[in-house]
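// run 5 | inverse folding | seed 20
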C-alpha cells in the first residue's frame, strides 16, 4: 500500500520547538531582546576580530581599510551587547512608524473620497485603527515580540493538533490515480 500521507516526526519536533520559543517570546520578551543583542554583539565582535587578524596577516594595499572595518565591527558589537533596550526601542519605533504611515495614507485617501464615494467612512475607520495601532506599538514595550510569540504559540498548537489528526496511510477511496 502506497503512503500518501505520513507522520513525519520532524514536523512534531518543529512544532514543539516553535511552541517553546513562542512561549518564551510571549512570556519574556525583554529576555529575548537581551539575548539577541548579546548574541549579535558577540558575532559582530568575532567578525571584527577576524578582519583585524586578516589585516595584520596580509599587510597589503587594503590594510588600513580592513583594520578600520575590524575596529568598527568590534565597536558595533560592543554597542549591540550593552544597548539591547535601545535596539528594542528602535525596532519598535520602526514597526510603529510603518503602521502610522499606512494609517496616514489611508486617512488621506478617506478625506479625498469624502465627496466622491460612500466608502470613505470605511477607509476613515481603517485609518483611525491603523493610527491607534501604530501609536500603541511605538508606546508599548515589547509588544512586537509578545505578538510574534503569541502567533508562534497558535501556529504550534494548530500544527500539533493537525499532526495527530493526519491519517497514517492514504485512503484508496479518497484519492484516485
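// decoded
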Amino acid at each position: 500500500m502506497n503512503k500518501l500521507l505520513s507522520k513525519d516526526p520532524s514536523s512534531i519536533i518543529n512544532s514543539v520547538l516553535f511552541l517553546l520559543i513562542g512561549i518564551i517570546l510571549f512570556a519574556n520578551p525583554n529576555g529575548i531582546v537581551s539575548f539577541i543583542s548579546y548574541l549579535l554583539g558577540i558575532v559582530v565582535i568575532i567578525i571584527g576580530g577576524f578582519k583585524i587578524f586578516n589585516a595584520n596577516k596580509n599587510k597589503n594595499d587594503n590594510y588600513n581599510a580592513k583594520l578600520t572595518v575590524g575596529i568598527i565591527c568590534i565597536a558595533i558589537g560592543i554597542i549591540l551587547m550593552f544597548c539591547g533596550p535601545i535596539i528594542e526601542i528602535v525596532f519598535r519605533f520602526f514597526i510603529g512608524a510603518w503602521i502610522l504611515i499606512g494609517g496616514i495614507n489611508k486617512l488621506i485617501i478617506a478625506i479625498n473620497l469624502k465627496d466622491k464615494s460612500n466608502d470613505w467612512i470605511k477607509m476613515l475607520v481603517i485609518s483611525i485603527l491603523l493610527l491607534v495601532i501604530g501609536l500603541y506599538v511605538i508606546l508599548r514595550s515589547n509588544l512586537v515580540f509578545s505578538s510574534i510569540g503569541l502567533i508562534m504559540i497558535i501556529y504550534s498548537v494548530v500544527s500539533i493538533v493537525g499532526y495527530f489528526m493526519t491519517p497514517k496511510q492514504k485512503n484508496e477511496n479518497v484519492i484516485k490515480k
